[in-house]
Amino acid sequence: EGKGKKRNPLHDFKKTGELMLIKVNKTLEVKTKLLNTTEQCAKRCNRNKGLSFTCKAFAYDRVTKRCHWLSFNSLTNGVRKKQDHAFDLYEKKDYVRNCIIGKGADYKGTISVTKSGIQCQAWNSMIPHEH
């Protein structure tokens, strides 16, 4: 990235057009606000600015220019997908990625078994290997 160039916050998100997530589990949190661009929504989600939860995704209503920050994503239990032409869904790649990059220290995905099917060691366990 060159000097003076700002990084686009949307690079941290996977976009799915015309999709909205509906929470079936009522304990999942959502916050909405009028914002002009998806970049503004992404920046706030990345920083968790003004949110009482960790933002894992946001949906942008192109018609009303309203951002819906979500404490969940499409892989969360208690959530269903709904086709909706007004919305675009943006999910944080860290939470929907099924691969580990580097040493995996920042991995937040859902894979918990090795390629050969062995259950992964919990991070809080020193058995069978020390970290």
TrEMBL record:
UniProtKB keywords: Disulfide bond, Kringle
Cellular compartments per GO CC: extracellular space
Top-level taxon of the source organism: Eukaryota
Organism of derivation: Setophaga kirtlandii
Domain Kringle: 98-131
Name of the gene: Hgf
Disulfide bond among keywords: yes
Designated name of the protein: HGF factor
SUPFAM superfamilies: Hairpin loop containing domain-like (SSF57414), Kringle-like (SSF57440)
UniProt cross-references to SMART domains, sorted A to Z: PAN_AP
Apple domain residues: 5-94
Molecular-function GO terms, alphabetical: endopeptidase activity; signaling receptor binding
Classification via Pfam families: Kringle, PAN_1
